[in-house]
Amino acid sequence: MEAQHIIAYRAIVREVNKASSQVTRNGTIASSFRAVFEARRRGDHSEHFDHDVGNVITFLQSQRMHKALLERYNPLHDLTAEQRIHATARRVGLDMPDTVQGDEKK
User: How many CB atoms lie within 10 A of CB 16?
Assistant: First the structure.
């Protein structure tokens, strides 16, 4: 039984590491999962613990897959509104005119 919990914990940590880059990795998430598993080891039993851990792993995998598919099939999702308009106009063969600021005079 203990081996299953170690395998589940490692799977969760692996998915958390895959979901975030080295720069944006948050140690709080991993330490929170570790605390949950330590509490389980000390004897705080929950009848649905194994099921919940499986759901967490599935959720993290699905979230990572969703992010990859979103980046692949919707390349404009992470652009600002102005960049998105410019890229969309360029896609259909139009070129957006340069925007002039109100205070600038040429």
Answer: 18
81/92 Cα distance (integer angstroms): 17
The closest of 86, 71, 76, 6 to 41, measured between CA atoms, is 6
**Which stretches in the chain have pLDDT values below 50?**
106
CB-based contact 18:64 (threshold 8 Å): yes
Core vs surface per residue 55-70: b (16+ CB within 10 A) or e: ebeeebeeeeeeeeee
For the entire predicted model, the pTM comes to 0.61
